[in-house]
Amino acid sequence: CQRFPSRNYSVQRPAGRPDYQLLYIHKGCGHYCIDGHWQEFPAGSLILYSPSEPQIYSYYTKDNPLIYWIHFTGTEVPALLEKYGISNGYVGENRLLKQLFDEIILELQLKKPLFQDITLHLFQQLLPQIHRLCLSRSTTDDQAVQIDRLIIRLNQQYMDPWDLSAMAKFCSLSPYYFAHQFKA
User: Fold this and answer.
1) What are the phi and psi torsion angles at 144 (to 5°)?
2) What global pTM score does this model have?
3) pLDDT in tens for each of the 184 residues of the chain?
């Protein structure tokens, strides 16, 4: 994790690194040269660098950035990144992502017994959480809240007769749209 309160910061790695790097912009913004073009990524964005991919980016104090990153490698990484759809883009500002990064950092700093196992476990939580955030962006927040409320109600009242129309009405959605959103 890095905050840049008193100076601008730039990285120039034309040959990249031997590992993957995942950056999460929690606050502020970052400026990244992707495929030869500079882009500003706002808070809530992810940037993924593959091994040997050029890494050229800058942070400016005026933007007050708070950036988290993690380096990782392994033979299973490409399959995990594909499974969870991890790529450059916006996932949203999320307290749980920040918390997972903070816990990983703490484990790596303290190096208590079994820290490597715990760090791996936290990383394995991070990727599906990112995927979940991407999936939830396909529905409006209000719809997601309504569907979550319905799921809680269904679990509380599992003996009650529920049909598609009743569930859609509970969520204030049409039956067709509800079915599509619920399935998603």
Assistant:
1) -60, -40
2) 0.75
3) 666 667 899 999 999 999 999 999 999 999 999 999 999 999 999 999 999 999 999 999 999 999 999 999 999 999 999 999 999 999 988 889 999 999 999 999 999 999 999 999 999 999 999 998 888 765 555 667 778 788 888 888 878 888 888 888 888 788 888 888 877 7
Q: How wide is the angle at C-alpha 71 spanned by C-alphas 1 and 66, nearest 5°?
A: 20
Q: How far apart are the first and last CA of the chain?
A: 33
In angstroms, the CA 173 to CA 119 distance is: 41
Structure tokens at 115: 């820290």
Is 26 in contact with 63 (CB distance < 8 Å)?
A: no
**What six digits make up the tokens of 65?**
């950035």
**Quick check: 123 and 72 in contact, CB under 8 A?**
yes
**Which tokens in the block code for residue 5?**
């309160």
